[in-house]
Every structure is written in structure tokens, then in C-alpha cells.
Amino acid sequence: MIKYKLIDKKFELEKRNRISQYSKNSKIKKIFHDYNYQMSLAKYSYNFSWMGVPIIQYPDDMIVVQELICNLNPDLIVETGVARGGSLIYYASILKLLGKKNSKVVGIDIDIRKHTKKVFNQHPLKNKITLISGSSIDPQTFKKVKFISKNYRKKLVILDSNHTHQHVLKELNFYSKIVSKNSYIIVFDSTVNILKKKNVMKLKKNYHLKQWGKDNNPMTAIFEFIKKNKSFKIDKSFNYKPLCSNTFNGFLIKK
């Protein structure tokens, strides 16, 4: 691994203390709620790409995930939900920059589209990425991931596929088994649960979602999961680090 040393530890401490104060600031919290609702309504996450490939994530979240990857130095990153593939390429490029020669990124999706396959087949990082076609909650799919994961020591999981309660809960129950100690499961689209119910209903209509809603989303699944899985807890230090975020209460650390 290429080791980058912190230049200024005092600066890093000031940063952590500053971020921790955001959750106590009522003005910032209001801005966070209003901004995230408006940006989600505007489909802001669809505006970006990584190395020319659509990533469909908020830049704030991607920078935070990058920081976590650099700190954890994982050998394997598993992501459920591939879409156009930009996030997989993003994670693979970070591992490449970290000098992780034998590292791997695994992407799982029930529908890996032709244009996405074309991107991966031509991409210079294609050897670092493995695609698995199938439902992330199919036992046979997880069996394939578990088999791959045996070859790696430090494992990070990112969930970003179907965002209903039952689907995410099943993903958590499966993929928590391969997460290594002191690593994370990152659950995307959890922020919706802190929004006002009337705003959630507007988002539901805007995204043409049927089951998803205030009482049926990734955060409700997270709460049910951690009640029964005491080895995981929500790392709240990430909650107000990004202003525009789909991962509020979505960083689960394994102790």
C-alpha cells in the first residue's frame, strides 16, 4: 500500500470537532433537511460522472466514501446495484491509487445493461472489477460473493440496489457475514427517513416508487438490523460531514 502521512494532525482534530458540532446546530440541521429534499426532488445525483462514466451519486457522499476507503485500505469492495457502473470504476480507481495490486471490486445487479457491460469490457480497470448478474438477496448470488470474499482479508460492503425495507434488511443479513472487523457496511438512500412525510410522498411520486416510503426504506431496515446484530452500530460521525447526502445513519461499523 502507498502510505500517505497526515501533514497536520492538529488540523484533522479541528476538522472532527467542527463536524461534530454540526449536529448540535439547529440552523445547519434545517438547511440539511431542506437541501437534501430539494436536491433529491431535482434528481441532482444524476448530474455527475467519474472518468466519463455516470456515477449517479452525490459528490459529497463520494468524497466521504473515498476518505473511508483510504483509511480502511480494503482488499475487497462489494457493491449491490450497478446502474451505469461509475461507482464501481470510482472504487477500483481508488484501490489502484492506493497500490492495492490484488484488490477487487464486485458489482451485483439483477439487470446489468448492455451499455454498462460495454463500458467495463473496454475500461483499463476492468481486471479489478467483477460483475455478478442476479438479485443481491438470492442465496445463490450471495454464495458467489462469499466464495470470492474468502480470498480477501479486509472487506467493505456498499448497499445501493432496491431501497425497500425488506430488501435492504435481507441484504444486511447476508452481507454483514463477509464484512471484516472494524470495517463497514454503507447503506445508501437512508436519508429519506429523516425527511417530512409529505416530502417523502412527493419524492415517491417523482421517482415512481410503489413500496418505498417513510416507514419502508433503508433506514427502517438499518434500525431493525442493529437491534438484532450487536456487533454493528451506526457511526454517526458521518451524518453531517456531507451537506448533500444519501447516507444519513447509513455507515454501519462492525466491532
Description:
It is a single chain. This protein has 255 residues and is an alpha/beta fold. Helix content is 42%, strand content 14%. The protein contains nine helices and nine strands. It has helices at residues 9-22, 26-41, 59-72, 86-97, 114-122, 139-149, 165-175, 197-206, 218-228, and strands at 49-50, 53-54, 76-80, 104-109, 129-133, 155-159, 184-187, 232-234, 251-254. The strands form two sheets. It has a seven-stranded mixed beta sheet with strand order 5-4-3-6-7-9-8, with helices on both faces. A two-stranded antiparallel ribbon has the order 1-2. It is globular. The two termini are 24 Å apart.
Short characterization:
The chain is an alpha/beta fold and 255 residues long. 42% of the residues lie in helices and 14% in strands.
Keywords:
single chain; two-stranded antiparallel ribbon; globular; alpha/beta; Rossmann fold; seven-stranded mixed sheet; 9 strands
Radius of gyration: 18 Å
Mean pLDDT figure: 93
Please state the structural category: alpha/beta
The total count of helices amounts to 9
Q: Looking at this structure, what is the CATH superfamily?
A: Vaccinia Virus protein VP39
The portion of residues assigned to helices is 40-55%
